[in-house]
Write a structure and sequence with these properties.
alpha+beta, six-stranded mixed sheet, 6 strands, globular
């Protein structure tokens, strides 16, 4: 089990890798929205190391940056830390980049936006801590 698997509490087996493959990761780092390539089978932590965003030996970045995923339905989940938390600072930063995320990934206006995740013992999409509404409602646009 890797250092990251221990922190997440989930072994990255084929089931978890398949989940990762079917969602799209993003991170806001140095005031820039970075979006992972489609089809990656790794966690944010592994992706960060692969991209040179953080070294394997110091994963403190995971507790500092807003990151998240877009699920196969186009719904957006954002959070911070290994505990998948959401707070005012995280919300303020994320919503600055929502429109860019929507435009770059061509997300539907009916897609939902969620904050934080409630960690479960089984892999798959964990339930959100907060629900914000649809992209249409949040961006106040009829079409995005």
């Amino acid at each position: 089990m890797s250092k990251f698997e221990k922190k997440y509490g989930i072994k990255e087996d084929d089931t978890v890798k398949n989940y990762h493959k079917n969602r799209r990761m993003f991170v806001i780092l140095d005031e820039e929205l970075n979006i992972a390539d489609a089809g990656l089978t790794c966690s944010h932590a592994v992706w960060f190391v692969q991209q040179g965003f953080m070294p394997q030996s110091d994963d403190s970045l995971m507790d500092e940056v807003v990151r998240g995923i877009v699920d196969p339905k186009g719904n957006v989940y954002f959070y911070v830390g290994y505990d998948f938390a959401v707070n005012k600072k995280c919300e303020d930063e994320f919503f600055l980049y929502l429109e860019e995320l929507v435009n770059r990934l061509q997300l539907k206006p009916t897609a939902q936006v969620f904050g934080g995740l409630i960690q479960q013992t089984t892999p798959g999409q964990w339930p959100p801590r907060k629900t914000y509404g649809t992209i249409r409602e949040l961006l106040h646009k009829d079409s995005v």
